[in-house]
Amino acid sequence: MGEVEDKLKDFEIKREGEAEILMLKSNAVFFNPVQVNNRDMSIAVLRTFVAKRKEEHEALMNKRNKSHQKANQSETSVQNGEDASTSQQDEMDVVGEQERNQVADETTDLPKEETKAPSWKVTKELKPPVVLEALAASGLRSLRYALEVDGLGKVVALDNDKASVEACKRNIKFNGASAVSKVEAHLADARVYMLTHPKEFDAVDLDPYGSPSIFLDSAVQAVGDGGLLMCTATDMAVLCGTNGEVCYSKYGSYPVKGKYCHEMALRILLASIESHANRYKRYIVPVLSVFMDFYVRVFVRVFTSASEIKNTPLKLSYVYQCVGCDSFHLQPLGRTVTKNNSVKHAPAIGPVVPQECSDCGKKFNVGGPIWSAPIHDQDWVVSTLTDIRSMKDRYPAYDKITSVLTTVSEELHDIPLFFSLHNIAGTVKCTSPSAVMFRSAVLNAGYRISSTHVNPLGLKSDALWEVVWDIMRCWVKNHPIKEQPRDSSGTAILAKSPKLEANFSRAVAALSKAQAKKVKRFLPNPERHWGPKVRAGRKITSKHVSLLGPEAINGALNGVVSHEDGNGVVQDESAPEPEGIEDDENEPSTKRQKTGEDELASEH
Question: How far, in Å, are 281, 308, 330, 345, 351 from residue 338 at the CA level?
Fold first, then answer.
C-alpha cells in the first residue's frame, strides 16, 4: 500500500460519470470540470446517433428485402409461363435468369467488397460505430464515451502533446479492462491523422481550446457517410463581433453586433463547416446546435452528394442589421427557378432592404454569410431529451442539459436569429410589456412566436418588423412616455401611425408547455468563476483572478497549491499584487474568454 500511495501522491483522482482519471496536481494536462455540461450533452447525442443509425440500417435492409422479394415473384411468374413459350423465349429467359443471379451474387458479396470503403449504409451486418476524439488531453471524454455509450466499437483518442498522451494512456489503464479493450491513445497531429484516415470514423469530436477552424477541413473528410461531427468553439469574442476581421479570416463570415450574437456564432460555425464539406462534394445536416456557458457546440451529420451541394446557397444568407433600431433582415445567397418541370439555380434577387431603414431611417451594417436553414432536428432533440430523462442518474449535469434541450425543443426552428423584448422597448424608451402580453399580441395578430435557448429575453417570430413596431406603438399609446429627441430612432418609429391594432388579451399559447408546467429553462451557474480555465502548462498568476477566483490567488500569495480545478498555482513575482479583487470577480465574460483563444490545445 505504501508504494501505491507514493505513486499517487502527485495525482488527484477525479470522477465524472462512470469514468475516473488521475490528474497531476500541477497544471501539466488540461482539465476543466465546467465542461461536464459539454460532455454530458455529447454523450446524450451520441446515444441518439447510435439508435438512429441502427434504425436507418434496418429500414435500408427492409427496403432491399422487398426489392429481392419482387425479383423472386417475377422469376416465379416466368417459370409458370415456360410451357407456353418458344425455344427462343426459353433462351432469353435463361439469359435473364443468369443476369438476375449475377445481381444477387453481387449483392451477397457486398460486405466483402466493403473492406475498401467501410460505409455502414451498404453493408448487411451493421458494425459498431468507431469514434475519434481529435483533441483528447486527459482522455476523460473518450473514456466516458467508451464506458457509458452502449454499442460503441473503438474510441481513438489523439493529442499532439506527449504529456497528455501519457496521461491518457495512464487513465485508460486506471479504468480497467473495459476501457483498455475499447480506447486507444495516439501521439499525433489531429489534422494529419484525419487526412490519412478518410471516412473511417462514424463520429468525430472536435473540442479545441479556442477556435476549431484549422481542424474543420480534415474533420469533414474523416467522417463516414451519414456520420456525426461534433464541434465546439470557445472563441466567442471572435464569433460575436468583437474582432470581426479575425472571424472572417478564420470562418469566412463577418459578424455583426446584436443581441442574437451567440446564435449568429452558431450559424457562422455551421456555414464554415458546410463550406469545408462542399469542397469534397459533401454537405451537412445539423441535428443540434447549442450555446452553453462560454462556448457554442454543434452536432451535424455529414453526407456525400454532388447534386445536393447545389442547394447550399439556399441555406446561406447575409444579415442586414440596422444601426439605429433592432430591425434585421436576411438576404439569401441563391434561389431556385422552376421551368418545364426542371429546377435551375440562380442568384438571389436583392437587396431586401433600401439604403435606409424603413422603420427608423438609419443605415444598415452587413454581416455574413451565415447558415439560415434550421440548426436543429426536432425529432433528434425530442429523442435525445426522452433518452436523458429515462436515465437521469447517469448524467452529472442532468439539470443543465435538460433545461437547454427543453428550451430548444420549443424554439421555432425555421426562424433564424431573434430579438430582445427589452431592447425594442429600450429603443422607443418605454416600459417593457410582459413577455406574455407581447407574445399574446403577436399570436392574436396571426403570427408565430417562441423563446430561444440562447437568451432568456430573446423571442423568435415570423412577424414582420412593421408588425412588431406596430405592437410597440399601440403599447406606447396606452402607456405614454416622455418626449424624446427628434433625431432618435424611437421618435422616428413612434411618429408613424400603426396599421395594426394590437390585441394584448392573453392568448392560450402565450406560455409554452414548459413555462406552463414551471419547468426550469435557464439555470444559474452552480458556482462562481464557472467558465474557461487557464491553458495547460501556463503558470497561474494574480492576473488570472477572473478565471480562478481570489481563493486561488490567495493560495499563490501564501505559496499554497490549489487543487480545485486541477490547476497548480504559482506566484508570479513580476506581477503586481491584485487590487480590488471584488471588482475583478465581476469582469465581463468576453474578457475571460480572450485567454489563449487563438492557440492550439484541447479543452476537456
Answer: 24, 16, 23, 9, 22
Q: Give the C-alpha separation, 88 to 68, whole Å.
A: 27
Cβ 316 vs Cβ 325: under 8 Å: no
Q: What is the DSSP string of 73-142?
A: HHHHHHHHTSTTS-HHHHHHHHHHHHHHHHHHHHHHTHHHHTTSS--TTT-SSPPPP-EEESS-TTSHHH
DSSP string, 149-166: STT---EEEEES-HHHHH
pTM over 0.90: no
pLDDT digits (tens, 9 = 90+) for 348-402: 998 999 999 999 999 999 999 999 999 999 999 999 999 999 999 999 999 999 9
Q: Are β-strands 295-304 and 282-292 bridged in parallel, bridged antiparallel, or unpaired? A: antiparallel
Nearest alpha-carbon partner for 557 in 544, 55, 370, 125: 544
Q: Which residues contact 504 (CB under 8 A, 6 or more apart)?
A: 433, 437, 440, 441, 444, 474, 475
Tell me the average pLDDT across 444-471: 95
SS3 409: helix
Q: How far is CA 377 from CA 2, 409, 450, in A?
A: 54, 9, 16
Q: The cell 435468369 sits on which residue?
A: 97
Residue 507 DSSP class: P
Please give the DSSP secondary-structure letter assigned to residue 375: S
Average pLDDT in the chain: 82
